[in-house]
Design a protein that fits this description.
Helix content is 24%, strand content 27%. By secondary structure, it is an alpha+beta fold. The protein has one domain. The protein is globular, with a radius of gyration of 20 Å. The N and C termini lie far apart (58 Å). The relative contact order is 0.20.
Length: 352
């Protein structure tokens, strides 16, 4: 049994874990491992927003352009594409890329064909909105958790290998205990989201994050399940999951959730793939934990999963959770509606 925290990231604890040293989890789970040269990653969410089926083809063309850019030198080591509809009825398609270090990302971003396209005034008008949500956790600021040991999605795709069975899972608080910085830091939030222009505008608005914004990506992959397992997941588990995700999308503002997107994988023609995940930005890890531990919408997800877990053989479940310094976040919204992503809760700039 291993610790979820890799040896080179361990240090003397000043904050205790939620379980005793002899704790034994009820089933095996694993985490991604990376060599010591991985000190900070980049997670980039590049979105296209539209409303109305008549604009879908144009939006997909923009998605393909973004993904074509991923193929340039210094592009991401892992990427995927998704679609979801937000509370306001807008469709959003997102290309998500992961880089192993910020220097490679910055070289990619500075390429004329990448920077020029995003910075062009052409993005400011027309039928589409665009957004970039870029976060860069250090190696001690994120954790992963997988029910499988190969072909990791998300940040696991830029890591090197996999752990053995880990101890810190299947109890409330295990998410925090897997983040290395939790050994000495409560990861408390400081400050507010600040818009550098009026967030009600639909032009180009940048939002500055605060310390210890938390991001969770929690995924489900039923592509390889058999008929019975697929039916069990789609008819018993997924509806409860979707209800919880819709609650956070529609009501998260009251409990510290800045933005929640329940997304489904698509190919570059917009066709659905049998994979999904939640993208949730929270004011703090603590507020995410309180929802997970006590809110009826998550407790229903939790109890439903544990009721059927013995029947799940091919379903692939995972998540990754990160926190960030304020300086390691960049949120930009171009021609988007004012409740998009972090815009909704951003404080407008004061006028001198």
């Amino acid at each position: 049994m291993e610790s979820a925290i890799d040896r080179h990231l361990q240090c003397p604890r000043t904050l205790t874990r939620r379980v005793p040293d002899e704790y034994q989890p009820p089933f095996p789970m694993f985490v991604g491992r990376a060599a010591q040269d991985l000190t900070q990653v980049v997670m980039g969410y590049f979105g296209v927003q539209y409303r109305g089926e008549e604009h879908k083809a144009e939006a997909l063309a923009a998605l393909r352009h973004i993904v074509d850019g991923f193929g340039s030198d210094d592009g991401p080591g892992e990427w995927d594409a998704t679609r979801h509809q937000d509370k306001q009825g807008y469709d959003n398609i997102i290309a998500v890329g992961y880089w192993r270090d910020p220097e490679t990302y910055e070289r990619w971003l500075s390429r004329p064909e990448i920077a020029g396209w995003w910075n062009s005034d052409e993005r400011l008008g027309g039928n589409l909105g665009f957004f970039r949500e870029i976060v860069s956790p250090r190696a001690d600021q994120f954790e992963t958790l997988y029910a499988f040991t190969e072909q990791f999605p998300g940040v696991g795709g830029v890591m090197d290998t996999v752990s053995g069975e880990i101890q810190e899972h299947a109890y409330w608080g295990s998410m925090r205990d897997r983040i290395p910085v939790s050994q000495t830091d409560w990861m408390s939030p400081t400050g507010e989201l600040e818009a550098l222009a009026d967030p009600s505008l639909t032009g180009r608005v940048v939002v500055r994050g605060h310390d210890n914004v938390a991001l969770i990506r929690s995924g489900q992959d039923w592509a390889d399940t058999g008929d019975d397992e697929r039916k069990l997941y789609l008819e018993e588990v997924e509806p409860v999951l979707r209800a919880g995700m819709d609650f956070l999308r529609d009501n998260g503002e009251d409990i510290g959730c800045y933005s929640n997107r329940y997304v489904h994988y698509i190919d570059l023609d917009g066709n659905p793939i049998e994979k999904s995940y939640n993208i949730g930005h929270w004011r703090s890890l603590g507020q995410l934990e309180r929802w997970a531990e006590s809110h009826p919408t998550h407790l229903r997800i939790f109890t439903t999963f544990f009721r059927v877990v013995a029947s799940l053989e091919k379903l692939r479940l995972y998540h990754e959770v990160s926190v960030f310094d304020a300086a390691d976040q960049y949120y930009e919204y171009i021609n988007c509606h004012p409740a998009t992503g972090m815009l909704r809760d951003a404080v407008a700039p004061t006028m001198a």
